[in-house]
Amino acid sequence: MTQSKNVYPSASEENFRELASDENALGICLDLVALYLGLAFDDPASGEVESWTLSCLPTTNGGQRLFTLNIGPMEVLYVEIPYLENRDTDVWSVSMYVSRTALEERTGKSFDDWTSDFPNLGFHRSQLVSAEGDAVVIRINLLDDASNEEFVTLVDDAALLRRLADRLVAKGKGPYGHYHNRWFAQAVLDHLREAPDEALM
Question: What share of the chain is helix, strand, coil (3-state, %, to 5)?
């Protein structure tokens, strides 16, 4: 397929093939995006582009991201590593946006308590206007076992993602359609269909 000169690199087949050239990196990305979409939507496929978009190797933050998942007008999930050419780095940082109110209900505690209860995760209040104050960013180091264990323990309630996703979808189609990578999106949807239980933890 010949790539149009007007297509953004993050939406191109070439960028997806570059990510897919590292099977481990691709597998991690597929699991994460499938997890989020599978919990946030009853039928992720029906909302592609209209409700959610997915970029691949975007230039955001100097090109350190492997992908960015957006729901409506807001980013909700991305992975950063220091350098794409050095994927053996000891830090793979995942940033996942969840509903603040749902997380308070899930834990029975407030923002100030989470850091002490989950010391291997990072918690940051989101300042993004679209969330209307109901978003917290959880940061996970995928290569740290303790961080992963706490993440799995915490994010076991679909409401954490669903409540935020519903709020963002209600705001209408986001502005990121031209960055959407349909090859990557199709791989995620295939991953959900082929191994739904594994994708949802």
Answer: 50, 20, 35
CA 176 to chain centre: 15
Identify whether 49 is part of a domain: yes
pLDDT in tens, 50-81: 999 999 999 887 768 999 999 999 999 999 98
**Alpha-carbon span 41 to 146, nearest angstrom:** 28
Side by side, the strands of the sheet bearing 74-80 are 52-56, 65-71, 74-80, 93-98, 136-141, 122-125
User: pTM for the full model?
Assistant: 0.91
Q: What is the DSSP letter of 48?
A: B
Number of domains in the chain: 1
Range of the domain at 169: 9-196
Tokens, residue 109? 């505690």
Mean pLDDT of 35-58: 97
CA distances from 94 to 58, 121, 148, 193 (A): 15, 10, 10, 23
| pLDDT value at residue 6 | 73
Query: Terminus-to-terminus CA distance in the chain, angstroms?
Result: 35
Confidence band (pLDDT; 50, 70, 90) for 89?
A: low
